[in-house]
Amino acid sequence: MEFSHELIMPNEDLPFKMFLFEGACGNYFRDKHWHRSVEIFAVFEGSLDFYLNREVHPLRSGEFMLVNSNEIHSIDAGSRNCTVVLQIPLKTFEKYYTAEQFIRFTHDRCEKDAEVMELIRDMYTTYCEKQCGYEMKVVSRYYMLLYLLVSVYRESEVSQDMLKANKRLGALSMITNYMKENYRADLSLDSLAEVFGYSPAYLSKMLKKYAGINYKAYLQSIRLEYAYQELVNTDHTISSIAMDHGFASSKAFTRAFQARYGMSPSEYRR
After folding, report:
1. What CATH superfamily classification does 182-269 receive?
2. 3-state DSSP call for residue 106?
3. Beta strands in 68-124 (DSSP E)
4. Is-contact 256 244, C-beta < 8 A?
5. Which residues pair with 41 in a beta bridge?
6. What is the C-alpha separation between 231 and 265, in angstroms, rounded?
7. In 3D, which of 106, 118, 93, 193 has the Cα closest to residue 152?
8. Cα separations (Å) of 62 from 43, 116, 124?
């Protein structure tokens, strides 16, 4: 079975990522994928079907789904919806791990569900309005949310099967995190394999099986994500952005950007 690894980058002004689900218009399916971050899907309008551990969880307005680190999931949004997504870095919970780099939250409904939804609504509304001091208000609600997660939703007992599955995908997460931290360098498959004690062939096979992409394409996707952020948030030249983010030339950056976004970087910036 193959599933893809999702690359996650926090909002520039927050310690986590928060955004509207891309399937808001309906007729949308996000195939099986996983990531190291803990994720919350909060449905405020409409509905969607959430697939987790081979089980379907219908989500209706006022309901949310907690996705654990390295938990494989997919989403079917057949109709219009308004869903806010939060992606929280796993290291946020390092003081509350129940095993090595492992924490698990329940998928069951709890008495604090309505409070969680209200916190997320307030966070997203405040973030969109961006009035003076909005970052402090959003972060204050965020820490209240984290408190509820560790005090109400955290599971203290986990099975060995869960730990094994997490360890397998966790090992790959360590590799992909290393790639994100060193993507600017001339990072070859051979050098990466040496860092983690694998043969290049085994590492290549591992990436293809669990990340659903080959090494070169995954490294380029990381470079493109960071270059995109600089393109839309600064006035730096396209040439300097390409060089700063590991592309061989501005032409190589433009080709990769065109393939992903359907237009050149200069066109997208305009």
Report:
1. Homeodomain-like (1.10.10.60)
2. coil
3. 73-77, 81-88
4. no
5. 65, 85
6. 7
7. 106
8. 6, 10, 15
Q: Roughly how many angstroms between the first and final C-alpha of the chain, as a whole number?
A: 41
Can you tell me the distance from the alpha carbon of 30 to that of 78, in angstroms, rounded to the nearest whole number?
11
Least trusted range by pLDDT, from 14-18, 25-29, 58-62, 64-68: 25-29
Identify whether the C-beta of residue 120 lies closer than 8 Å to the C-beta of residue 84. Answer: yes
List the chain domain ranges.
4-153, 182-269
Which pLDDT tens digit goes with each residue over 51-97?
987 789 999 999 999 999 878 788 999 999 999 999 999 899 999 98
pLDDT tens-digit readout, 141-156: 999 999 999 999 998 8
HEC profile of 102-135: ECCECCCCCCCHHHHHHHHHHHHHHHHHCCCCHH
* Cα–Cα distance, 58 to 50 (Å, whole number): 6
- Residues 100/164, Cβ–Cβ less than 8 Å: no
Q: Is 71 within 8 Å of 32 (Cβ atoms)?
A: no
Q: Which amino acid is at 102?
A: F
Tell me how far CA of residue 185 lies from CA of 98, 178, 191, in angstroms: 35, 11, 11
Secondary structure letter of residue 158 according to DSSP: -
Residue partners of 38: CB distance under 8 A and separation at least 6? 66, 67, 68, 69, 87, 88, 90, 92, 93, 103, 105, 149
Burial zone of 64 (CB within 10 Å; 0-12 exposed, 13-18 middle, 19+ buried)? buried
CATH architecture of the domain formed by 4-153: Sandwich (2.60)
Report d(CA 114, CA 133) in Å as an integer: 26
Q: CA–CA separation, 81 vs 173, rounded Å? A: 31
